Write the structure tokens for this entry.
Amino acid sequence: MSAADGEVGRRLRELETLVGEVERLGDAAARDKTRAIVRAVLDLHAAGLERLFAVVATRGEPIERAILDGCAADPLVASLLLLHGLHPLGLEARVRAALDELRAAPGDVELIGIADGVVRVRVASAALRTSVEAALVEAAPDAAAIELEGGAPAALVSAERLRASAPR
């Protein structure tokens, strides 16, 4: 982990603490006002990112593709883009890329399909299950669920668990 990643993690933990404190406020009006402020800031950031992508698009395909690929490859930037629905890669493309990185031999890991946001993957061994699950949670925190088959009894990873264990 780089120093920058450590700083981002620290800031996210601080943000989570502050959000928790707001949620415990006894004053419902103060909670609602704080939520509205957070929504407004997030909407502003989303609009800024959309405009940034529009500017990048005016620079031509090779430059645009290089910038979008770089954004998609950076975990922090990719998570921000996912948060705002701006990630340049769809769910299936991100899942396939994550599985391609894990595959040591043909048949080790296979995408069975994606339907209604549920990612179904077959793994050849129990040893792969943990690494496959971790890679998919990182690549596709927006998946409704991840279902792993093979190597052990089928397991369904809930969307709530995905969000709770996603990198921050």
User: Anything to note?
Assistant: Residues 28-57 form the longest helix (30 residues). The first strand starts at residue 109 and ends at 115. The domain at 91-165 is CATH 3.30.300 (GMP Synthetase; Chain A, domain 3).
